[in-house]
Amino acid sequence: MCKSGDVLAILITSIPIFLANSYIFRPLMDINIHTSNLRRIICFSLFIALSCCLELEGQSCPPPQSDDLIVLDHMDHPSTSAFSDLWGYASGGKEYAIIGRRDSIFIEDVTDPYKIQTVVSIWQGDISTWRDFKVYGDYLYSITDNGTNTFHGVVIYDLSNLPLSAPQVNSLTTEFGRCHNIFIDEANARLYAVGMPGAMDICVYELTDPANPTLWGCYDLDTISSGTNTLYIHDIFVKDNIAYCGHGYSGYFIWDMNDKNNVDVIGSLPSSFFDGGYVHSSWNFDNDDKAVVATEIGGNPGIYIVDQSVPTAPVKIAQWKQPLHQCQDAGNLDRKRPHNPYVLGNKAYISFYHDGVQVLDLNTLTLDSYYDTYPENDDYSSGFPGCWGVYPYLPSGTIIASDRSHGLFTLIPGACNTLVAVTDARGPGTLDAGIACAEDGGTVTLSGFISGQTINFQDIGQTIRRNLIIEADPVDNITLNASGNNPIFHVLPGVSLTLRGFTIQSSSSSTQAIINEGILILDDMTVIHNAGQDAIRNTSSGQMSVTGDCNIEN
Fold this sequence. Notes:
This protein is mainly β. It is built from four helices and 43 strands.
């Protein structure tokens, strides 16, 4: 690990070098250095120092996203309350994400994954860290656990009228007031609720009438297996009336739930097979012969592969984890923890707290792709921030993920490409895709393939959340046109956007081409305004500079 003295030595030597050689500093050579400028210089030099130190250590950190998993949009609901789990729902060509917050449920329209829209918000009137959701038909089933005055049981909402409304139609409170998780075996129309306080471990409901479930049975599994009140179920996966359960420090159990009068254990693996860790959750491979099992705390939390092709004798056959922040926090890699795994085809999509969404190739047990939803955190010892849940089952292939601090993300798998080669609004090769793919400080290039063409922005626009450069060769004569109700670019405070070598224009009388709350740099640009509207609007926090051969009509 880097020592403070090493960083200080590099910092002391790097500041003079930076001052003498940086093109950023040269314009300041003949004027007094402002405190803010000096602070930036010192911070940049400290970054250099830390980077050098890390390189000396022979370690490197990956960028916040991989080339094969790209974020498209992000929706936050600012609050002191943290977000929790999520689920998906699709109907009538529309796709939705259902995400929990400590005090609310939000239903987000993600049909256009580049533009998340909140359509329903449900305030449940209590505070609960844990909210879990599942969908059957057109009904949403919601539970809460361990909250103040949390006695809702299973609450049922009708989703058939989305995006207009999702009214509550029922609640099941007779058997319990709160529980930790639910699962729906859709093929057999049964809902399984687990993690209730007290002796009861699992309750099962028939969903023949989805709005009015009927109780199939509740069970204290310790009385069945001669345990000693240790078979609390933290999470559950069910297929063909067989329940695969994470029993915490008691291990991983498989239960036969075919006969309500003869529920029995089929096979099990104690916690010792998982390095003594807490078996949190699991998901079966598509053919059910194996399972991805996640341990959240204790031992060395990670992902385990269990062979359950002989269900009476399951066997642990592999384990995996790949920390993204190993260069910053090598001393706490044993605390990097997964949360919830989901399997689709030959990949497992895993919410990995500090390390965001990680996609595991189940054929090779290697990291396929990732997106770090919580990049500001690089300390694995700091509890449970970051990604809570991920849902890969929407028909369009859009992946949705929830982050405790940052809310909802929409992502797509696919190779990263920052070259804009088509003028379509959506899809590979578009400006949207290029911006979504670019890293902080990266460059998006408007290709000569669209020489002489205009990209029209009507019902879409780009919120610029990280520092970017968008450039073209001026000889290609490419134009970006704001022709609808949204600006082409909305630059957020503290973010820098450099535009170089093309034309920006507003042909709509109702909107600007650019709204700038950050730092806007125009280099060799042409800007054309509509007679009734400025092309660029700087807010009170916005700063704009012009360089090169520019023609600005504003």
